[in-house]
Structure formats: C-alpha cells, structure tokens
Design brief:
It is built from 16 helices and eight strands. The protein is mainly alpha-helical. It has three domains: 95 residues, Phosphotransferase system, lactose/cellobiose-type IIA subunit (Methane Monooxygenase Hydroxylase, Chain G, domain 1, Up-down Bundle), CATH 1.20.58; 113 residues, P-loop containing nucleotide triphosphate hydrolases (Rossmann fold), CATH 3.40.50; 115 residues, Helicase, Ruva Protein, domain 3 (Orthogonal Bundle), CATH 1.10.8. The chain has a three-stranded mixed beta sheet, with helices on both faces. Helix 1 packs antiparallel against helix 4. The longest helix is centred in the N-terminal third of the chain and has 26 residues. About 4% of the residues have low confidence. It is a peripheral membrane protein. GO terms for molecular function: ATP binding; ATP hydrolysis activity. Belongs to the AAA ATPase family.
Length: 383
C-alpha cells in the first residue's frame, strides 16, 4: 500500500511544478505541501535504505522550493521566485524524474533471455575486463528497447541498473516536452549533469518517439526509410530531398576498414576486397552491424574458451586443445587466480567475418530500392 503514497506524491509534484512554471505560486504552494506530506508518509513505511535516501533527497529539494515560494507569497510578490532560471528548470526536472537505486534482479525478469544476456554482457564485461575494449571496440552506451506496451522494457532497464549498482533516472519524454517546450537544450544538459552527479547512473527515457522540435534557427537534418509515407506538407518544409544510395564496391571495402579501425586483426588487403565483393547489396548500416558483431567474436571466444596459452610476456590468450603449452582452464578460473588483467582476446580474423556473414542478409530488398529510385525521379536528387 505504501507505494501508493509515493505515486500520489509524484502526482502532486507534477501539478505543483506545472503551476510553478506558469507563475501561479498561490496554487503551486499547497500542491508542494500535499506532495511533501505524502513523501513523509511513504518514508515511514519504506524499508529499502537506498530508496529512502532518494526519497529524502527529493523531499528536501521540494521543501526548499516550497519555502522559496512561501517567502514570495508572504512578501506579496507575484513574480518568479528568485532561484534562477536554471535552478527552476532543474527543480521542475527533478519532479518529472523518478530517481532510485532499484532492486530488481535478473531472475525477477520473466523471459527476454536474449535481451538480458546482451544487456548483462554490456554491463559486466567492460567493468571486469576493460582491456577487452580497445581500438574501435567500445562498450555499448545507449540502447533502444522497443516493443508493445507492457512487455517489461522499464522493468528490464531497472534490472540493468541493479546489476551495475547504478542510480536509475526514469523520465517520460512526453512529460518533459509538455512542460519545457523550447528548453530542450538546457533540459538535456541538466538531465545529464544530474546523472553525472549521481554516477554511476542509467537514464531511461520512456515514450522516446513523442519528442519533436521545430525551430527556425536550427539546422534540421531528417531521415526516413519510407519517403512516400510522409505527408506532402511535411516534405515541402524541406529545401532539399537527397537520396543516399547503397555503397558501391570501393565504399564497402573502405567501410570495413573504418569500422574495424585499429582493433587488433590479421586481415590483408585481399581479405578486405573479398569482404566487399561478398557484401553486394549491403547498406552502410548492414556493414556496421556486421563489423560490430565481428568485433565481439574474439570476446565470445575468450569468454567460452576451455584452453588458454601463456605468451612469453605473461599474457594469456585462448587457444585450441592441441596447441603447444595449452592449459585447460576457463576465463573465470583465470580471473579467480588474479590474472584478469593478463587476459587478451585473439586478433580478429577473416574466419570471424565469414561466420557472421553466414547468418546475415542485406536488409534492403530490390523492391525497396525500386521504391526509392522512383521517388528520386519524382521528387529527389542524387546524393
């Protein structure tokens, strides 16, 4: 039952901030006070010390704002309380954000095994084995969870925050847009500053598709996969409609090199040329996906290896059981021996690419290409 007190407090805060931002301080003040009462009641029943700490912090922030408004009202003032525009924005942002240290375990999330595995590896591997992520191989820092309502997206995000022992910032983009239209740049800056102050932290933005901005002083670069589905009035708002075609042979060969970067590999120029021929019809995104999968092939080999060999400089790399001086040992056992920093994945090979390409297909069909070519002839121009 006590969770209802927090929900009611948050609802009162939202109303209070709405009146606060509109300058209706006589209405905002009692709403803040009602919210504070519900927060106080919630604190009486809350057992989780981390959540109690987060609620106490929020209580203090809203109490400070309520006192500022009361001072203005007592002086008979009607203008904005003197806490500065940025402070007001942050106070309002605080009200729309649920900040907590969640306690949702992986086992609490039903199903979603592949999603859990991907997120778990993205959270844990970079922490335990930072040396795996060198060159172009970087830990993932942003995820889009998509699917029908009620499938557990926010719950899964909380499990990630629990696993990473991170502060969880949950905010609805539609709520933000309705309250702070025109303040998007300051809003994002404040949101990430708050997250940095509570680092390590995770920001979960719900309803991301509802964000939309329109500003005459801003250069807009828009993209769509379905140009024919755009309303004609919207298309007319763009001065140029430029077609971005699939990459040709040379472009694909270059893309493989760029995406691979200085990540440790043993591919030759002939190998890159072969990959370019092998991926006729692939988009730049397809090649990026391919390389991103390949980048982690050595990591998976290392994670699942049963045999390792120690090099002359004390580095342990995975190997086959028949390799000279091979030791039957797992990654976890080497870690337990205090050798985590001495383990490195093998270089990327052409075989790694062949393995990934065997299961990957171009995402753009011939029918899709025909639609884009026809649209280009009617409305666009070659890029």
């Amino acid at each position: 039952m006590y969770s209802n007190f927090k929900e009611q407090a948050i609802e009162y805060v939202k109303q209070a901030v709405q009146e606060d931002n509109a300058g209706n301080y006589s209405k905002a003040f009692p709403l803040y006070m009602n919210a504070l009462e519900y927060f106080k009641t919630h604190l009486k029943y809350e057992k989780n010390p981390k959540i109690k700490e987060a609620i106490t912090q929020k209580f203090t922030e809203h109490l400070r704002r309520a006192e500022e408004i009361r001072a203005v009202l007592d002086d008979g003032g009607t203008g904005p309380a003197s806490n500065g525009g940025n402070a007001s924005l942050r106070a309002g942002l605080n009200s729309a954000i649920i900040t907590e240290k969640p306690n949702v375990q992986w086992s609490d999330v039903a199903g979603l095994e592949s999603a859990k595995q991907a997120l778990q590896e993205a959270v844990i591997l970079p922490v335990k084995f930072p040396q795996f992520f060198t060159g172009k191989r970087r830990p993932w820092r942003a995820f889009l969870l998509y699917g029908p309502p009620g499938t557990g997206k926010s719950y899964l995000a909380k499990a990630v925050a629990t696993e990473a022992d991170s502060t969880f910032f949950s905010v609805s983009s539609s709520d933000l847009v309705s309250k702070w239209m025109g303040e998007s740049e300051k809003l994002v800056s404040n949101l990430f500053q708050m997250a940095r102050e509570s680092a390590p932290s995770i920001i979960f933005i719900d309803e991301i598709d509802s964000l939309w901005h329109n500003d005459q002083k801003v250069l807009v670069l828009a993209a769509t996969n379905t140009p024919y589905s755009l309303d004609q009035a919207i298309r007319w708002r763009f001065d140029k409609q430029i077609y971005i075609p699939l990459p040709d042979l040379k472009a694909r060969q270059h893309m493989f090199k760029v995406h691979l970067g200085d990540t440790h590999h043993n591919l030759t120029e002939h190998d890159f040329e072969h990959l370019a021929y092998r991926t006729d019809g692939f988009s730049g995104s397809d090649i990026s996906v391919c390389v991103n999968d390949v980048l982690f092939e050595p990591v998976w080999k290392t994670k699942d290896a049963s045999y390792f060999v120690e090099t002359s400089n004390g580095i342990w790399v995975p190997c086959g059981s028949t390799q000279r001086r091979a030791v039957q040992v797992t990654l976890q056992e080497l870690e337990a021996q205090g050798l985590a920093s001495k383990i490195l994945p093998p270089p990327i090979s052409r075989t790694d690419f062949e393995k990934v390409l065997a299961r990957q297909r171009p995402t753009v069909s011939k029918a899709d290409l025909e639609v884009h070519n026809r649209f280009t002839k009617e409305f666009g121009e070659e890029g």
